[in-house]
Amino acid sequence: MVGHFIIKMLNFMRFHVNLFIGIIFLLLGVIIYLLSYIEASGIQDWSLSPGFFPRLAATFIVGLSLLLILITVVFEGKAKAPISGQIRWRVFWYVIGTIAIMILYVCLIEWLGFIIATVMSMAGMMVLYGFRRWIVIGLMSVGLPLFIYFFALKVMYVLFPTGKIFQ
Question: Do 163 and 113 meet the contact criterion of CB atoms below 8 Å apart?
Answer without folding.
Answer: yes
